[in-house]
């Protein structure tokens, strides 16, 4: 059964999400808040879904221009509807299409992606949900190739993966001259295993900065590091 659609209210924008596509996740919000953008003006959001990352980055940087790409027509329509109601509607363009066949006139300063990561699993019953979580369509190798093809020489990229898939992506990326510069481990609570890894990279090879970000503390409350990152976005953090 498809997930029901609902509204996620942030401090500066709101997004309809779920049905079609996946609902907004905590780790995706953390990823959007963590991405260390600076002067990245032309940005490509691969697999934008409801448009979460595009909106979070536009809130960070008023000069940002985002091309939000979504392969599933119904989900792309949902993203477009969100953009039309958004305070950042002049900064985000939604495109329906496949990154493997995308042709653009110029490369991007920043490429971001919260990609599918389940490979060879049983198919999800909902087609839009299946495409969103299964890597059969956009593998880590496919994503590395897309970033290599569309990134400027001095550009940066940011991706979110579970640890195993991140290792596969990094191998594929390094073969194409793309390197990790920063990695953050998302940990649900102290003592738990790493849930996701967030990567910030470029074509420049350098020492990798590594950090840990806990979602909750020992008492089950949101961790201070998590609160600090999400404070500009979450209504629950004044």
Could you describe the 3D structure shown?
The protein is an alpha/beta fold. It is 28% helix and 26% strand. The chain contains 7 helices and 10 strands. The strands form 2 sheets. Strands 5-4-3-6-7-9-8-10 form an 8-stranded mixed beta sheet. A hairpin with an 8-residue loop joins strand 8 (179-187) and strand 9 (196-202). Helix 1 runs parallel beside helix 2 (52-60) and helix 5 packs across helix 6 (163-174). The protein is globular. The relative contact order is 0.15.
Q: Would you list the SSEs in sequence order as H and E?
A: EEHEHEHEEHHEHEEEH
Query: If you average the pLDDT, what whole number results?
Result: 90
Beta-strand residue fraction: 25-35%
Structural class: alpha/beta
Shape: globular
The multimeric state of the shown protein is single chain
């Amino acid at each position: 059964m498809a997930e029901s659609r609902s509204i996620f209210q942030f401090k500066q924008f709101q997004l309809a999400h779920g049905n079609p596509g996946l609902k907004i996740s905590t780790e995706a919000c953390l990823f959007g808040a963590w991405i260390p953008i600076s002067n990245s003006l032309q940005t490509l959001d691969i697999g934008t879904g409801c448009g979460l990352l595009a909106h979070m980055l536009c809130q960070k940087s008023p000069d940002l221009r985002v091309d939000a790409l979504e392969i599933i027509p119904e989900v792309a329509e949902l993203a477009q509807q969100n953009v039309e109601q958004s305070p950042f509607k002049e900064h985000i363009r939604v495109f329906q299409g496949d990154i493997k066949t995308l042709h653009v006139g110029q490369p991007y300063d920043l490429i971001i992606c919260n990609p599918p990561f389940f490979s060879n699993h049983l198919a999800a019953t909902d087609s839009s949900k299946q495409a969103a979580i299964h890597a059969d369509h956009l593998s880590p190798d496919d994503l590395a190739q897309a970033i290599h093809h569309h990134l400027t020489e001095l550009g940066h990229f940011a991706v979110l993966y579970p640890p195993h898939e991140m290792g596969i992506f990094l191998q594929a990326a390094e073969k194409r001259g793309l390197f990790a510069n920063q990695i953050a481990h998302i940990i649900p609570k102290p003592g738990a295993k790493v849930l996701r890894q967030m990567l910030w990279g470029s074509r420049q090879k350098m020492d990798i900065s590594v950090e840990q970000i806990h979602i909750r503390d020992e008492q089950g409350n949101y961790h201070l590091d998590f609160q600090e990152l999400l404070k500009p976005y979450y209504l629950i953090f004044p």
